[in-house]
Automatic annotation (TrEMBL):
Name of this protein: Helix-turn-helix transcriptional regulator
Domain HTH cro/C1-type: 42-96
Annotated SUPFAM superfamilies: lambda repressor-like DNA-binding domains
Organism: Leptonema illini
GO cellular component, one term: cytosol
Amino acid sequence: MFDITDTITIPNKYDIPYSVKSDLEFFMANDSVLRIKLGQKIREIRSLRGMTGKKLAEISKISPAYLSEVERGLSEVSGEKLTRIAEALGVSVGTLISPEQGGDMVSIPSPLLEAAEELGLSLSDTVKILRSVQTLVARRSSGSRVEWNKDDWIQFYRKVEFILTEEHQ
């Protein structure tokens, strides 16, 4: 088992103070909330389009049972499946993951989406990674903002992966 003392040692731009672990765990605890909101949004748009769950599942090339679980917030959805659902509904993935008016907008950078697809991450895990980095940047802001590429996101994920996998055990 990994033993954390004060700091996890990771190359400079990936240093994670021990106190950040609690922030990451907070975001992970909200996993079901993200799934429920996403599912509600999918169902809402599907209903507005006059589309049955069976028809959306068919067009999206997923099973009706799985779509039902996603809409009820019971199952994770991969980026690939979410993209197919969004296309079938005629909306962007951003529309599906953006909360109601007045909420916080989730804008996932393209390199992170590419990394998430390569790593096979769910949408909620991708959002958790984004939020954890945003928390780190807020705590360690040096004034200059560095744009990460796909490999940076993958490297960061591999350094915090143990926290994500602890939750699922």
